[in-house]
Amino acid sequence: MDILDTSSKVTLEERRAADGLDAYVPRILRGSELYDADVDRFFLDLPLNGVRSSHSLRAYGYDIMVWLRFLTEVCDKTVWEAARADVEAFHRIRRKSGPGSGYRRRRGTDRLLQ
């Protein structure tokens, strides 16, 4: 029986301790720590770049969390180590996976392969 180490699992925190719209800016964690300060800055900049809906912020969070989880669990890489081959592998898995697998294909992501 395999024992899964969840201490380093990539997870999404949908809300943060902040006022106003910043409370809805997601955070991605690895274990109990922030995954990456630059990824967090990307999320904090979303409202300044026009993404103000709490639903849109959450969608960004989940999509990026799935990508980072794939990189961590399948490729054993960080977001900054990812290569084109990793993007292609991610898309292959998402196309083959059924609903609820966590690796589903979303509209517009094919542009990453171009």
UniProtKB/TrEMBL annotation:
Keyword Cell division: no
Keywords: Plasmid
A matching Pfam family: Phage_int_SAM_1
GO molecular function, one term: DNA binding
InterPro entries for this protein: Integrase_SAM-like_N (IPR004107)
Disordered as annotated region, ranges: 95-114
Tagged with keyword Transcription regulation: no
Residue ranges, compositional bias (Basic residues): 95-108
Protein name: Tiorf78 protein
